[in-house]
Each structure stands twice: as C-alpha cells, then as structure tokens.
Please model this.
Amino acid sequence: MRILVTGSFGNIGRNVLDLLLHTGYQVRCLDRETERNRKIAASFSKAPWNARRIELLWGDIRNKKDVQEAVKDVQGIIHLAAVIPPLSEKEPKAARAINVEGTRNLIQAAETVDPLPKLVFTSSVSVYGPRMTDPPPRTVDDPVNPTDHYSSHKVECERMLRASLLPWTILRVAAVSVSDVNASMDPIIFAIPLDQRIEFVHSKDVARACVNSLCVDAARRILQVGGGEGGQLLQRDFLKGLLETSGLGMLPESAFLVPEKDSDWFYTDYMDTREAQALLHYQVYTFNDYLEELGKKLGWRKALARCLGPALRLYYSSKSPYVRAYWKRKLGLVGPG
Model:
C-alpha cells in the first residue's frame, strides 16, 4: 500500500514517516527541497530496508503538476503541509496559497485517481475560536468560529474536503509537542493568558492517529486528537513545565496578557477525544513523558541554561509588550488606563 505524505519532513511528518516505514507501507514524500529537508530525508533513506520503500518527490503543493505527479498510484494520503502561526499571520497571502490553494490542488488531483485514495487531513482545535467562557471540553458538534488566518484556512479546507468525492478523515489536533524549545519562545506566547486551558498532545501520538486513520472505518468523520487527561492543563503549568525542564525557569507573570474581555482568550481548550481514542488507539504519551524526554535530549544544555537563567529570562521578558506596560504602570509613568 503506497501512502503519500505531504509536509513529510516537518515536526509531525517525521514521526509519520517513521511509523509508516516501520509498519511496512510504501511511502512517497512530497516536500520542498531545502538543505534541512535533504538532511532529514537522508536520515530515513540510509537504512537499506527504508530505501526500498521510500520515494522522495521534491516539489511544491502550490504547483498542480507536482501534486498530480505525487498522487499517482497512491492508496492513501496524509496531508500535513501547512504554514502555522505565527508565520501564517505575518504572511497571510503566502500562507493561504499553501494552506488553502495547496489543499485544493491535492483534493482535485486525488479525485482523478482510481480507486479514490483516502485522505487524512490535520486540522486544528483553533477552528473553535476562543471558548474559555464555555464549559469544556470542546466536541465536534461545537460550532466553528475561526478568528485568524490560520483557523480560517483550516475551516475552509474542512469544507472543501466534505464537499469532495474522496473518503476523508479530518483530525482536529490539539497543541503539539515540539523538539526545539526555542520554537516555543516566539512572542506569541505572551498573548496567551496563563489561565488559558490547553490540551497537549505528543507529535508521536498525532502521527499514530494519522497512520491508524488509514486502516480503520473512519471515513467522512471528524475526530479530535488530543492527549486526554494526561495532556490537559493550564498554560501556566504548560509553560512552567517546559521552561523549568529546559533550565531557563518560568518567566514573570507580568509578561503575559491578563484577559479583560472574551476575545482576549486564546483558541485552545480541553477536547473530548474519547471517540478518536476508541477508534485510533493513539494516546501513549503524557505531558510529563514529554518533559522527561525533553530533559534527556537537552543534556548539558540544560545546566548551561540554568547558569544563564536570569539573563535569559530578562531577555525573553523584554520581548513582551505586556511587561513593558506593567512596569510603566508600576513606576507611575502612565495612568491605569
């Protein structure tokens, strides 16, 4: 069985490839040819048993010819290629070309394949919008409420899939683990209130959900992929665990947005993942498992971060617009409003 994976060498994609290859699938990778992606591809291809079952197709999902070539003779598609925040908000036109038009290219090309391949699409919890004033968890029956470019793109792609001829499974994914702590330190984190509900899910578990979706009866279904009880926490505890495990230590609370109205909340929440877990059996790792894994990976760098902790915390905090406003009020430089 040949499976096409778009965005093959991203955070989730690498885990999807690893699982597909170990499970015995033939895999075709569609991704852009960059130095980073070539290195990752080489790490998969060097094993002889992998080299026989992995096919590299360097291309661009925005290019219809590349996509048409990619879908030839495939029985399944795992569609991961996407531009995510904050880049999707900084460059919305480029993001839409990949997220929406690229998905359109893929659906149209897949509809020409006989028999029709099953398409597994990774959507996002963000499609529900800020819902902190509603009791959790979020369910697939909740109305969507996109509030930025990224969540709007996901909603539009879901609509295209539902209107297509393809057998599809949509996975609305929670906050996914990253392997690089620096990737979590974008200034966008300061706009997430510390009391925000957030559900974590390990990238390996998302990969397992994607791969298992290929072979279970989940066609034309929307499923929620989160970490379950072991991944449900507040942003304060999520960030504290991440930063203390890295050796950096928690940043001051004054660096973070204190919500004053409903729209100030972020678009993460706890999710009802019982149906997805019953079908896909994907939940293996908890947030604590991830922290233990991260600590081992960081090794000596964790001790170095501890030594530099005060300076690093000051550096990262200086990027927050809220901490500057906090100290201005504290020093009486501005009025309370």
